[in-house]
Amino acid sequence: MYMLSLSQCVTDEILAPPIEVQAGCGGTKSRDTFLHFENFCHSGLSHLGIKLSNDINLKGIWKEAEPFLDLIGPFWSLRASLGPLLETLILLDRLLFLQEQDSTVEAYLLPIFDPMISPRNVAVIAKKTDKHLRSSCY
Fold first, then answer.
1. In angstroms, what CA-CA distances link 38 with 46, 49, 57, 79, 125?
2. CB-CB contact of 52 with 41 (8 Å)
3. Which of 77, 85, 96, 124 has its CA 20 to 30 A from that of 111?
C-alpha cells in the first residue's frame, strides 16, 4: 500500500503542470522537477530510516532519468493495471503445475494476511502425499 501511494505521489508531482516562472526568479521547469525529485529521494530514504549519502549524485541520476520523464505516468499506469493480473496468472500457473503431479501433491492457494498490508498476500501451499505408503502401513 505504501509503495502504491508513493508511486502515485511521484507520478502526481512529476506530471503536475509546470509552475509559472515569475520574472526575475530564474527558475525553470527542469529545476522545479529536479527539486521535486530531490525532495522525493530525501522523503523516501528518511521514511526507511536511511540517511542520504554524499556519494550519491542526485543531479547525475536526474540527468539520466529526465529524458524519460514523459514515460513515467504511462508506465506506472500500465504497471498498476496489469501487475495484479500478471501476478495472479503466475500463482495459478504454479498451482496448476503442482496439481498436475500425478495426484501425489495436494496444492492450495491460501491468503496468509490482510491484502491491505500487501497485495502479495497469497501463498502456494503444497503437501506431498504418497497413497501407496499409507495403504501399506495399515
1. 12, 16, 10, 24, 43
2. yes
3. 77
Give how far Cα 71 sits from Cα of 14, 65, 66, 67, 76, Å: 11, 10, 10, 9, 9
pLDDT at 132: 61
Using an 8 Å Cβ cutoff, are 109 and 123 in contact? yes
**Averaged pLDDT for residues 94-108:** 87
CB 111 within 8 A of CB 117: no
Phi, psi for 69 (deg, rounded to 5): -55, -40
- Is residue 46 within 8 Å of 38, Cβ to Cβ? no
